[in-house]
Automatic annotation (TrEMBL), chain A:
GO CC, alphabetical: cytoplasm
Pfam families (UniProt xref): ADH_N (PF08240), Glu_dehyd_C (PF16912)
Similarity comment: Belongs to the zinc-containing alcohol dehydrogenase family.
Keyword tags: Metal-binding, NAD, Oxidoreductase, Zinc
Molecular-function GO terms, alphabetical: alcohol dehydrogenase (NAD+) activity; metal ion binding
Organism classification: Eukaryota, Metazoa, Spiralia, Gnathifera, Rotifera
InterPro entries the record matches: ADH-like_N, ER, Glu_dehyd_C, GroES-like_sf, NAD(P)-bd_dom_sf
Boundaries of every Enoyl reductase (ER) domain copy: 49-383
Domain of life from the UniProt record: Eukaryota
Protein name as annotated: Enoyl reductase (ER) domain-containing protein
Positions in coiled-coil regions: none
Keyword Hydrolase: no
Cofactor(s) essential for the protein: Zn(2+)
Automatic annotation (TrEMBL), chain B:
One Pfam match: Glu_dehyd_C
UniProt entry tagged with the keyword Secreted: no
One Gene Ontology MF term: alcohol dehydrogenase (NAD+) activity
Name recorded for this polypeptide: Alcohol dehydrogenase
InterPro entries named in the record: ADH-like_N, Glu_dehyd_C, GroES-like_sf, NAD(P)-bd_dom_sf
A GO CC term assigned to this protein in UniProt: cytoplasm
Entry's family note: Belongs to the zinc-containing alcohol dehydrogenase family.
Cofactor: Zn(2+)
């Protein structure tokens, strides 16, 4: 068995279909979960940087053997997070070459976590952050700032196997990556954005106090904004305003429990009356308005401004005189992924999650899919790889 | 019975301060008539007299003092004539949403001693006076004998505010803190963090004469020596658990943010004036998952905590030595001038010294 497997692995890609046939024809005696039909290669879309000749180039590469703790998954459906859009527009810098994409619902192909209850075929979401579990940040529940942090969709191609991002047929999930099974009730389309957008919203919610007859203001009506509206309502907030610039999506705000504000509605009457303001639009000029609206003792969550063009035009006095709390939320910890799946399961029939999600593009059409994302017509645009190996 | 008060007429008036002697009114239910034993000059009053802050005028300034009960109408209390007290700067209603959630300093019916018009109530509303009429919504705490007048005077603004700030400071094993400012607030903050178990507390400031006090209050002094500060900043970048701004200057905030470790806490106390533009980005706050908390004044429980803390540590730290000379009430203007020079952490004022 071992000899034939070595032989098979020594063939290059052009013989891959022969190898696949041989592979699946073999009936292995040691039918452990690690030795079923192992795909020899996968495809990933490599990002070469915005100034290169081909910004995105498909690459077929061998899929290595798993090391202990790893999970080989195939990508069922990936979604395009706005941060990837910012990367291709030059507003963010990511290492290159790399495989972008960090939101996806995946399916277990094989794994080396014998202590877990994972089974081949399980649909999973997974933590963007691979963390060590032992440093001071992991130990205080701030895994996203692990000293040995690795982030899917944000790593160089040369890091590990290179199957590090969701714009690919497969991902190799590392051993420090928390995974959560997706209940059947949740469709692939609704599951894809869980592991960035929804989990981050859950992390933000950890800092939201329970306020009787609470009032909140969500600045931004993208995926983060709508998830946050729903989460605040479920948390018991009586009134949740939601502002944004995507007029064609404002109808969704109401469906997600929010009160839509249009254009430059000032909301004078709520000055000093809002318990929680959440910035999820990535634009710093909304912050003065948020500070005005907050009541003394209120909480301001900053979630979207993860880029350098986020200069704040505020004074220390504004923060002090109202005894405000400002909390920065970046990514999330493993518990928030659990909470995200639970939240979605609990509220799946209550909110029109399915309607927020836009069209699906083939992986080979990634550039086009990104273009559509930029237009911000949909909460999310999806990408689906053609899975060549099973 | 007559009482004397120094009325502040505003910066642009002929006489900025003028003395006035008027009869003390009868007490209403819940009120306490106290005589001022010793008042201290808080930097915010200095800012008022230099035009950096605007207070209503005419008014009686001064909001830090240790006082003594002359008469009271709180029969349910155990107050007695002669009791030495400290009292909350804020008179609050206890019933509004802010009082009910422990944020009494933002009471919808807030009244602040030293910040109220002369025409409000009896006018005996500030500490630069012989007497104060303490209102029915004002929390008071007795001062134990072990605490001298000199050490007691700054409790009800400076020390109580620090107690409020400390409510947000986590107990951290081998914690590291950085206090930006070496005035009364900075010294108190250093000592409280030290008592809370923080392993290393840096305290930076502009007043080199304070450095020996900083050491004795449990902190490592950093002075306006750019080279040393720069070295420490580099070494401690991303390693500090808590940074506390108590200097009122906004340009220290960028350093503070650099020093903080991911998940760290920044407390803002000093920048209570409009010239406090922050030159920071949202990204800096988000990427490090920082928390910034604004602290303004305090709630009644913090006054209790302040007195308890001082009683517990009065023999351990040189509180007496950081407080400066005492001036007669009639010399208020001069006393404020000395306070402006920042030679001492506090300058004191006493009515009827002569």
């Amino acid at each position: 068995m071992i000899v034939s497997r070595i032989l098979i692995r020594s063939f290059k890609q052009k013989y891959s279909h022969i190898c696949r046939t041989l592979c699946s024809a073999q009936k292995s005696n040691a039918t452990t979960h690690t030795e079923k039909t192992y795909p020899i290669s996968g495809t990933r879309t490599v990002f070469n940087g915005i100034n290169s000749q081909t910004m995105f180039a498909p690459q077929t590469a061998l899929i290595p053997e798993l090391t202990p703790g790893e999970i080989l998954v195939k990508v069922r459906l990936a979604s395009i997070c706005m941060s990837d859009v910012h990367t291709i527009r030059g507003q963010r810098i990511e290492p290159t070459p790399s495989v972008l994409g960090h939101e996806a619902i995946v399916e277990v192909v094989t794994h080396r976590r014998p202590e877990s209850d994972l089974a081949v075929g399980d649909r999973l979401t997974f933590s963007i952050a691979d963390s060590c579990g032992q440093c001071e940040f992991c130990l205080t529940g701030l895994n996203q700032k692990c000293i040995k942090l690795f982030k899917y969709g944000h790593a160089k191609l040369s890091d590990g196997s290179g199957y590090n991002g969701c714009y690919a047929t497969h991902i190799i999930l590392r051993r420090g990556t928390h995974v959560v099974k997706i209940p059947e009730i949740i469709s692939d389309r609704c599951a894809a954005p869980i592991n960035c957008s929804l989990a981050t919203a859950m992390c933000a919610m950890e800092y939201v106090p329970k306020a009787k007859n609470g009032r909140a203001f969500v600045q931004g009506d993208g995926m983060l904004g709508l998830y946050t509206c729903a989460a605040l309502r479920e948390h018991g907030f009586e009134r949740v305003y939601c502002s944004g610039t995507r007029l064609q999506r404002s109808k969704f705000i109401e469906h997600f429990g929010g009160i839509p504000l249009y254009n430059d509605e000032i909301l004078e009457e709520e000055t000093n009356k809002i318990d929680v303001v959440v910035e999820v639009c990535g634009v710093s000029n909304v912050v003065n308005d948020g500070l005005r609206l907050l009541k003394p003792g209120g909480v301001y969550l900053f979630v979207g401004m993860v880029h350098p063009h986020s200069q704040l035009n505020i004074t220390g006095e504004q923060i002090i005189r109202k005894c405000l709390t400002i909390k920065g939320i970046h990514n999330y910890a493993p518990r928030h992924l659990d909470q995200a799946v639970q939240f979605l399961e609990k509220t799946f029939k209550k909110y029109p999650y399915e309607e927020l999600i836009g069209p699906t593009y083939d992986l080979s059409d990634l550039s086009q899919a990104m273009q559509i994302s930029i237009e911000k017509r949909y909460g999310r645009v999806l990408v689906k790889p053609n899975v060549l190996t099973s | 019975m007559l009482g004397e008060r120094i009325v502040f007429n505003g910066l642009n008036s002929e006489k900025m301060f003028s003395s006035e002697t008027v009869p003390l009114p009868e007490l209403a239910p819940g009120e306490i008539l106290v005589k001022v034993r010793l008042a201290s000059i808080c930097m915010s009053d200095v800012h008022t007299t230099t035009g950096q802050r605007v207070e209503p005028t005419p008014s009686v300034l001064g909001h830090e003092a240790v006082v003594e009960v002359i008469a009271h109408r709180r029969p349910e209390s155990d107050l007695m004539k002669g009791d030495r007290l400290t009292f909350s700067i804020a008179d609050s209603c206890t019933k509004c949403e802010f009082c009910l959630k422990g944020l009494s300093q933002k009471c919808t019916k807030l009244f602040k001693y030293g910040h109220a018009k002369l025409s409000d109530g009896s006018g005996f509303n500030g500490c630069y006076a012989s007497h104060i009429i303490i209102r029915s919504g004002t929390h008071v705490v007795k001062i134990p004998n072990i605490i001298s007048d000199r050490c007691a005077a700054p409790i009800n603004c400076s020390l109580a505010t620090v107690m409020c700030a400390m409510e947000f400071v986590p107990k951290i094993k081998n914690g590291r803190a950085f206090v930006q400012g070496d005035g009364m607030l900075g010294l108190y903050t250093s000592v409280v963090l030290h008592e809370l178990g923080y392993e290393t507390v840096y305290c930076s400031g502009n007043h080199i004469q304070r450095s020996q006090f900083i050491t004795r209050f449990g902190a490592v002094p950093l002075y306006n020596d750019r080279r040393i500060n720069y070295e420490i900043l580099i070494e401690e970048t991303n390693k500090i658990d808590v940074v506390v701004e108590v200097c009122g200057v906004s340009n220290v905030v960028n350093d503070g943010i650099k020093l903080l470790k991911p998940g760290g806490l920044y407390l803002f106390l000093g920048m209570v004036h409009p010239h406090s533009d922050l030159h920071i980005t949202g990204e800096q706050i988000i990427r490090k998952c920082l928390m910034i908390k604004g602290i303004h004044n305090y709630a009644p429980r913090h006054l209790d905590q302040a007195v308890d803390f001082l009683v517990k540590t009065i023999d351990k730290y040189p509180y007496e030595e950081v407080v400066g000379p005492t001036y007669d009430l009639s010399d208020l203007q001069n006393a404020i001038k000395i306070a402006t020079e920042k030679t001492y952490a506090r300058v004191l004022v006493k009515p009827n010294m002569k």
